Amino acid sequence: MKIGIIGCGAIAREIVTRRSDVVALYDIEPDRCRNFDVPCYPSLDEFLSAVDLVVEAASPKAVRDYAMKVIGNGKDMLIMSVGGLVDRDFREELFNLSERNGAKIYIPSGAVGGLDIIRAAKIAGLSRARITTTKNCKTLGVECESRTLVFKGSAEEAIKKFPKSTNVTVLVMIATGLDVEVEVYADPEVHENVHSIYLEGEFGTATIEVRNRPSEMNPKTSYLAALSPVALLDSLESNVRIGA
Ligand SMILES: NC(=O)c1ccc[n+]([C@@H]2O[C@H](COP(=O)([O-])OP(=O)(O)OC[C@H]3O[C@@H](n4cnc5c(N)ncnc54)[C@H](O)[C@@H]3O)[C@@H](O)[C@H]2O)c1
């Protein structure tokens, strides 16, 4: 597999460290490629011609700007900035294009777990999904002296308010197909990125809580989220899939 990564940040660092088949990088700020020992391409077209699979690890805007082109060129795409898929029309257009030309879209579990439960439970019907995110005030970019509810509403609204901290709410929305109830708390005492998902359906109920260590390179990003594309890429090559 020839992997190319858009966005030379914390997630790219983890992938490049752990996979030897990353052959190309692209970043809107080319200087950001400097610390990587992988060729950096000056244009998206040149970058695309060098790879089979594109990992987007940049920003929701990068998804909106490049995904149709990547999939249109028949390249598979792994999307980290799930917030870029929040618009239903854009999402359906992209997924339909992928269906038509056979290029695959992969969306890793990122900073949360339970996507396996959602997939199975959905077969019989899911009726409710709630996600509560708690991060340090500084990580969310808000002032607070004690645990404070800073957002309550839908995944669509959450990603607009906290585009770098609530990708998982859009992930759960897309995975469940439900209007997810989202609460975001800022807490000066919390130094992990905590996501708690509650699901209800025909299967019963589930609560999945992940207390994530922030990535050292980018505290908005959880370390687990940076590992999840590596796990997904590894699984594509594996004959035995456990919990997939
Ligand atoms: N799905 C999840 O659970 C999850 C979890 C954490 C982070 N994320 C998302 O993954 C993305 C990457 O995270 P990170 O911590 O590696 O970020 P980072 O800030 O460390 O690095 C992002 C890099 O992308 C580049 N970039 C930004 N916009 C670009 C564009 N339009 N074109 C090309 N390059 C561009 C930046 O210059 C930067 O070098 C972010 O959007 C983040 O919100 C998703």
Structure, described:
There is one protein chain. The protein has 244 residues and is α/β, with parallel strands linked by helices. It has two domains: 3-110 and 227-236, NAD(P)-binding Rossmann-like Domain (Rossmann fold), CATH 3.40.50.720; 115-216, Dihydrodipicolinate Reductase, domain 2 (2-Layer Sandwich), CATH 3.30.360.10. Helices cover 36% and strands 24% of the residues. It is built from nine helices and ten strands. It has helices spanning 10-18, 44-49, 60-72, 88-101, 115-124, 137-140, 155-161, 167-176, 223-236; strands spanning 3-6, 22-26, 53-56, 76-79, 105-106, 126-135, 148-153, 181-186, 193-201, 204-212. The strands form two sheets. The protein has a five-stranded parallel β-sheet with strand order 2-1-3-4-5, with helices on both faces. Helix 4 links the parallel strand 4 (76-79) and strand 5. Helix 1 (10-18) packs across helix 9 (223-236) and helix 7 packs antiparallel against helix 8 (167-176). The protein is globular, with a radius of gyration of 18 Å. The model has no long low-confidence stretch (mean pLDDT 96). Bound molecules: nicotinamide-adenine-dinucleotide. Nicotinamide-adenine-dinucleotide is lined by residues 6-12, 27-29, 32, 57-59, 61-62, 65, 80-82, 110-111, 164, 167-168, 171, 217-218, 221-222, 225.
